[in-house]
UniProtKB/TrEMBL annotation:
It comes from Ptilorrhoa leucosticta. SMART domains: Brix (SM00879). One of its GO terms (molecular function) is rRNA primary transcript binding. Keywords: Ribosome biogenesis, rRNA processing. InterPro entries: Brix, IMP4/RPF1. The gene is Rpf1. Residues 63-72 have a biased composition (Basic and acidic residues). May be required for ribosome biogenesis. Residues 1-23, 48-75 are annotated as: Disordered. Its main location: nucleus. This is Ribosome production factor 1. One of its GO terms (biological process) is maturation of 5.8S rRNA. Residues 117-300 form the Brix domain.
Length: 324
């Protein structure tokens, strides 16, 4: 007999059990003491987060499609780049003072087509195999460049010889523990000289899905996000390494992309698949540069006058402050 007409277990009238949440609001992964179990639950939590995010994204997209032209504009996500602290040296394209300075600086003969780039690439003393291969591959990227392996010869003796032989730039690749870790770029004959820290070097054989070796065509050059006066100087240094008129038939492009004061170099070959789609293949090598100092004149480690030096403790106080 029943006790008041309530549902009897097993008679098919049991109330449905409430769905148990996968992760209760008070759930904390740190409470799980077993490491493997904690890791497994963390992966499940991440998967749940991705599903919720994707569902929300689909819901918003359907709402925008339903509203049509009345849909509100998309919100711009906050990034370190668009939250950047304003730099008073940011260049205005219409600034007459900047235009005058660029017309009279050390790179003016190149941009006025009075000189043709001729580059000497050299290394530190007794370079190892990886640095040697990197220099050889860099020479195939920069037209009219020559590799010279110096054997104990000081840079102060190399520079006058370069000037006498009409070289316009000198590139020195330094290494540490058999790995390239520094680049010195000196514009001849009057400077300036830039010192970079080099990282993330990848040779051609280390790049996945790479294209065939580059041809001898003069590549196009892309300079991205060099917005300050200092950035303009660095960008003009890189531009002066390449001849003026690219040979578009080669479909090769060298890119110097500045992001958060890190300069990423990539070398690609492109092909137009249609009017809207472009396919690219990376040819290599690739590397990343970080400016350490900019020095007036040619290389002089003792008595050189510096225009700019990166001081970490003074300049890296804010993640949103950039100098290039």
């Amino acid at each position: 007999a029943g006790d008041g007409g309530g549902p009897v277990p097993g008679d098919g009238t049991d109330p449905p059990a409430p769905e148990r949440a996968l992760f209760p609001p008070t759930f904390s992964l740190s409470e799980i003491k077993n490491k493997q179990r904690r890791h497994f639950m963390f992966l499940r939590w991440k998967q749940q987060q991705r599903k919720e995010k994707l569902a929300l994204k689909k819901k918003r997209r359907k709402e925008r499609e339903a509203l049509g032209d009345k849909a509100p504009p998309k919100a711009i996500p906050k990034t370190i780049e668009n939250q950047r602290v304003y730099d008073e040296t940011t260049v205005d394209p219409n600034d007459e003072e900047v235009a005058f300075d660029e017309a009279t600086d050390e790179f003016a003969p190149y941009f006025n087509r009075q000189t043709v780039p001729k580059i000497l690439i050299t290394t530190s003393d007794r370079p190892r195999g990886r640095t040697v291969r990197f220099c050889e591959q860099l020479a195939t990227v920069i037209p009219n460049s020559h590799v010279y392996y110096r054997r104990g010869l000081a840079l102060k003796r190399i520079i006058p010889q370069c000037i006498a032989r009409d070289f316009t730039d000198l590139i020195v690749i330094n290494e540490d523990r058999k790995i390239p870790n520094g680049l010195v770029l000196s514009h001849l004959p009057d400077g300036p000289t830039a010192h970079f820290r080099m990282s993330s070097v990848r040779l051609r054989k280390e790049i996945k899905r790479k294209g065939k070796d580059p041809t001898e065509h003069v590549p196009e050059v892309i300079l991205n996000n060099f917005t300050t006066r200092l950035g303009h100087s660095i960008g003009r240094m890189f531009a002066a390494l390449f001849p003026h008129d690219p040979q578009f038939i080669g479909r090769q492009v060298a890119t110097f992309h500045n992001q958060r004061d890190y300069i990423f170099f990539r070398f690609h070959r492109y092909i137009f698949k249609s009017e809207k789609k472009v396919g690219i293949q990376e040819l290599g090598p690739r590397f990343t540069l970080k400016l350490r100092s900019l020095q007036k004149g040619t290389f002089d480690s003792k008595f050189g006058e510096y225009e700019w030096i990166h001081k970490r403790r003074e300049m890296d106080t804010s993640r949103r402050k950039f100098h290039l």
